Amino acid sequence: MMNRWFSRAAAAVLLGFSMAAGAAGLTFTEGQGYTRLPVPQRVSPAGKIVVTEFFWYDCPHCAEFEPMLERWARAQPSRVVLERVPVAFEPRFAPQQRLYYALKALGKVDALQDSIFRAIHEQHIKLETPEQMATWLQTQGVPKPQFMNAYNSFGVQMQARRATQMMNDYHIDGVPTLAVQGTYIASADLPQTPSMDLVLQSVNSLIRKVWSAS
Known about the structure:
The chain is an alpha+beta fold. It contains eight helices and five strands; from the N terminus they run αββαβαααααββα. The chain has a single domain (30-213), classed as Glutaredoxin, CATH 3.40.30.10.
């Protein structure tokens, strides 16, 4: 799992985003720009095209990708919905899963998602335990008791378990990875998409594919 993750990192460093200029003529095909899940997964809400990002807060490549993903999401029509799913490849990842869902329950994800990545990767603030998270979130205007109540709630625990189940159902073994409509997987591991800019181009083509078939 982690070897694959680091190989993806190496590809991104070597090729960067400079390939975007020459990507306009690319045709993405199965095995070249995306893969297809053996068992399609159900998505919601109905009537929308759902793009799912699998991510991990401590992942430097997820942090680098975040601003690009935000710009991409803002440019999408209302029919396209972005869903984020925090992964837990190991037990130590689980607190950050619950961090995400606690903030989502408090309505704070949109305001703090980028700030969390910057705190970890630019300011080198450790956000690995509930106590560390609560202490930092107080500086961001989230009262510690409010966060801890959400973090320890049954609903957040259930959402974290669901996220891990989704990670397994989608066969995710590296991040960042994007899924389209519970059917297609796009990542920087594939030959034709060695950068996240190209991954998003593949995702755009898959959205058009799903849209035209609906």
